[in-house]
Amino acid sequence: MLKIDRRQAMAYRVAAHGLHRRHTGDPGALAVFDLGVQDDSRRGTADLAMLARVEGALTPLGDDERFVLAWSHRGAPHYHRAADFPALVTALPPWDDADAAARLGWQRRDVAAAGMPADAAVRTAAAALRKVVTRTMTKGAVSEAVTSATPDGLSLWCRRCQATHIHDQLMRLAAPLAGLVLAPGASPATLVPVRPRPRLAEHPDGRAATGVVRAYLRLHGPATTSDAAGFMGTTRTTLAGTMWPDDVVEVSVDGRRGAIPADALPAVENPPEADVVRLLPPKDPLVQARDRALLVPDPAHRKEVWRVLGNPGTILVGTDLAGVWRATKSGDRLELTMTALLPLPAQARTAAEAEADRMRAARGLSELRLTWT
């Protein structure tokens, strides 16, 4: 079994995520799209993730027909290659009741209220969505229509909306199964049927589901079954018993055992030098790994990177998430505050400031006000 340290593991991940040098070709060729790039449209996080990886002018992902935005992993919005979406849909149905309950975050009382097993609830909601959403509709209109078309037990009173409607997470998990994607940048959230509509799968395709896990291990490995299950929102038992690839090898990172696809082992043994400085947005693919102690060893620093509400962006320096940043827009000015979590040499600070100016230019703003704290 190969034994490596944290720095070597991080150097591998930086390269696997396309951060060790900027890509000059089609963004769709980046390995991060094998898993998907999570987006927060209010902050343009997916486009900022591309800015950190791609050289030159960028077409916003929402304007590029080669990509689709959909609720996928854990019900969160991710950009995927449009060509990959049909296969991804077959990987997302729950395997059984326990798997569905975990993905929904349901407890026994929720299942009892639904009057059916959690996996049946997902299939029922998907069938209803497929039937009622035949055109572009806002999330509110979809919720109203599908609530009327599903059993009462799948709905609940929403204090924020002051209305009874289908469980939000249930709708998010069911939407891609019904062949629904999201209109990029739309507010409120708007669902769009894909053409042609995929077949409504009763059960997951094992090969496709295993492919998702393999992509996680390639990007975030060496990783454990618990790590991969945390990303997918399921249980370790379900993932290990149904989706775990058989073409992986064990690697120890500072004594913690994880797995990596066998064909990635040479890259783990000899990763490129991670001599880079990048500004990564909140929800960047690199920080989606579930072994956060490897990404950020200091517990106090982890609390700064992963907040209860409103995660900041991070400053990648070599193999370390060495700081955080937050940005606001004031007129034609980008105001950006950077906080160093680790000692940063002047050269790294200068490089981070150059990255901030790239962000300003990408947003079409004329002025940058930058503050270090």
Short description:
By secondary structure, the protein is an alpha+beta fold. Helices cover 37% and strands 21% of the residues.
Give an overview of the whole structure.
This protein has 373 residues and is an alpha+beta fold. Among the domains are: 93-203; 206-269, Orthogonal Bundle (Arc Repressor Mutant, subunit A). 37% of the residues lie in helices and 21% in strands. It has helices at residues 6-16, 45-51, 85-91, 97-104, 108-114, 118-132, 139-148, 168-177, 206-220, 225-232, 236-242, 265-269, 292-295, 299-305, 346-362; strands at 2-4, 37-38, 67-71, 77-81, 137-138, 155-158, 163-166, 180-182, 190-193, 248-253, 256-261, 277-280, 313-317, 320-330, 333-340, 367-372. The strands form 5 sheets. Strands 12-13-14-15-16 form a 5-stranded mixed beta sheet, with helices on one face. Strands 1-10-11 form a 3-stranded mixed beta sheet. Strand 10 (248-253) and strand 11 form a beta hairpin. The chain is globular and about 60 Å long. This is Winged helix DNA-binding domain-containing protein. Pfam families: AlkZ-like. InterPro entries: AlkZ-like.
